[in-house]
Design goal:
Blueprint (H helix, E strand, L loop, with lengths): L3 H5 L5 E6 L2 E6 L5 E6 L2 E2 L17 E2 L5 E3 L2 E4 L2 E4 L9 E3 L9 E5 L3 E8 L9 E10 L2 E10 L5 E3 L2 E2 L2 E2 L10 E3 L2 E7 L5 E6 L11 E2 L6 E7 L7 E6 L5 E7 L5 E5 L14 E6 L5 H4 L4 E3 L4 E12 L2
Antiparallel strand pairs: 1-2, 2-3, 3-4, 5-15, 6-9, 7-8, 10-11, 11-12, 12-13, 13-27, 14-26, 16-25, 17-20, 17-22, 18-19, 18-21, 21-24, 22-23, 23-27, 24-25
Length: about 325
């Protein structure tokens, strides 16, 4: 229920769900994953109820994830111009819905679903109906997303999510990382892709788990390797193996953006957690068209991903 205090918080109403000793808080603003804890231990490095999200923490990134060159693009005869919210690089970043209020659709002890109707505007001249459902269960947190084009013409679409993961180490340098991807995107100094190449043998090669060390990543991975459940699973683990967190994606998500937080402000937050971001398309997809989803009028896209924490007994 929305209290007066909730309405005055930077992220609006706070929706808490639980399962056993798992506790998650989702916010009204942005349908943001503000916190995930197990017995008081953090799974995601989030933020407090008295703060707003910074550096994308826990946010839903739609109708495009990551960066958009010059904030400009054209699609099906329509020209669009989004605000440059990464002005130092001349980019629009992370879409348009992360600062909007989302309407509560469903609330139970274990699940919460929120919806956002993105109306046509200069940065996105289509009517898009978005919904995100978070559910806690025995396997951790499952996130289901869908998007429906309510316009009378085709609409371009991409979505991503931005959790920062932690396994309780002081810095991620000590943790072990596995990213099941055969390729990485090469980016220019604006963070825009210029090509791709195999990860094998490169500094970004985490196909087999190894310590993060001093590796700096702000890297989009693709050619994801999938298990028998048709999921790609990235893993962050303590060096002693006592705790790990698994980020899995279904076939709807073709990319994992991995960010080691080397440029975060304030400086003490740098490399304190690692962002592992499911994305349906690469950065700048609205300009390049690479893996961009084209939604016909009335058509719905769906995708699912999740966070599964594990601890040794």
């Amino acid at each position: 229920m929305n209290t007066t205090r909730d309405a005055l918080l930077p992220t609006g109403a706070q929706h808490e769900i639980t399962h056993g000793d798992h506790r998650v808080v989702i916010t009204e603003v942005g349908a943001t994953l503000r916190s995930y804890e197990i017995g008081g231990s953090r799974v995601v490095d989030g933020f407090t109820a008295d703060e707003r999200s910074s550096a994308g923490r826990g946010q839903v990134l739609a109708p495009w994830p990551n960066r958009l060159e010059d904030g400009r693009y054209s699609f099906a005869g329509k020209d669009a111009k989004a605000p440059l919210d990464e002005p130092e690089r001349g980019n629009a970043i992370h879409g348009l819905v992360r600062w909007l209020p989302w309407t509560l659709d469903l609330r139970t002890d274990h699940a919460v679903a929120l919806r956002c109707l993105l109306h046509p505007q200069p940065g996105y001249p289509w009517l898009l109906d978005l919904a995100v459902r978070y559910e806690l269960g025995a396997d951790g947190l499952t996130v289901e997303a869908d998007a429906t084009n309510r316009s009378d013409s085709p609409a371009p679409f991409g979505i991503g999510f931005h959790p920062y993961l932690t396994v309780g180490t002081d810095r991620i340098d000590e943790a072990h990382l596995r990213v099941p991807a055969g390729e990485q995107l090469v980016a220019d100094d604006r963070g825009l892709p210029t090509g791709r190449h195999a990860v094998i043998g490169s500094e970004a090669d985490f196909m087999s788990a190894r310590p993060v060390g001093d590796t700096q990543l702000d890297t989009a991975y693709t050619a994801l390797l999938r298990n028998e459940d048709d999921r790609a699973v990235a893993v962050l683990e303590r060096p002693d193996g006592a705790r790990s967190v698994h980020v899995w994606v279904d076939r709807a998500f073709k990319y994992l953006m991995v960010y080691t937080g080397d440029t975060l402000e304030p400086a003490e937050r740098r490399r304190a957690a690692i962002a592992i971001e499911p994305m349906t398309c690469p950065p700048n997809a609205l300009r390049t068209g690479v893996d961009l989803i084209e939604l016909e009028p009335g058509v719905t896209w769906r995708g699912t991903w999740g966070i599964r924490p594990e601890a040794s007994e």
